[in-house]
Amino acid sequence: MAWFLSYILSVGLSLLVGYGLLVKAMGQSAARRQMSHALPWIVLGFAIAFTSAFTAVWKQSVWSFIHLAYIISVSLWLLIWPVRKRKAGSLQLNVGRTWHNRMLFWIGIAEFAIAAMITWIAWLTLTEVANSSIEVAQLSLKVAFWWVLAAFIFALGLNKLELRDNGLCFLYNFIPWQRMKSYTWDTNYPNILVIQIHPRFVFLPASMNIRVPEQHRDAIDRVVQTYIPCSPPDSLALS
């Protein structure tokens, strides 16, 4: 139970810090939109943690399954990215790394440090205490999970925003122009591009906010407006 409470506190603190950074970089309205988009995943994380916290018998098995599923899904996601990227067509504009990428880069660095610390603790556990083969496997999955998580966030930080013939590539995602309904620029932060999209699932966000480098704003506008209509800034209040 104690670890569950510490989990709640750490997640809550992380959310507050993240919200503060978003407000500073993108403004309060954009920060609220971003946090509302993340809410379903936060609730899911709490549900998983709550369930495993009160099922002591299955707790390690549940977390091992989550670790394994994450490792496999993220690895496949990155491995098939070149195939998915081909669908985007030829490059029209390479915007480069955005504010999101730079933030994720440093978060990835911090995650590598956390992964190294967890690896060290796991090594001490294995060398000082007798463990069964199941416990060794579970501990190995936990260590692998943290390294994959760090590598994934770091890779997101190195990724670039690209506008291509058939859509937009950002954070290892390809979003076709057909899925985008309209776009606008935030009135308070003119270099924040807000795109209204058709989400694949109802629980996914219907808009995305990208803080782009100011020197590329006009070039981005010229490309995007050829594919999707520009909506008035007032429409942000409805998103």
Automatic annotation (TrEMBL):
Pfam families, sorted: DUF5673 (PF18923)
InterPro entries: DUF5673
Transmembrane segments annotated in the record for this chain: 6-26, 38-58, 64-83, 104-123, 143-161
Coiled-coil regions listed in the entry: none
Keywords associated with the record: Membrane, Transmembrane, Transmembrane helix
Domain DUF5673, chain residue ranges per copy: 159-227
Keyword Cell division: no
Protein name: DUF5673 domain-containing protein
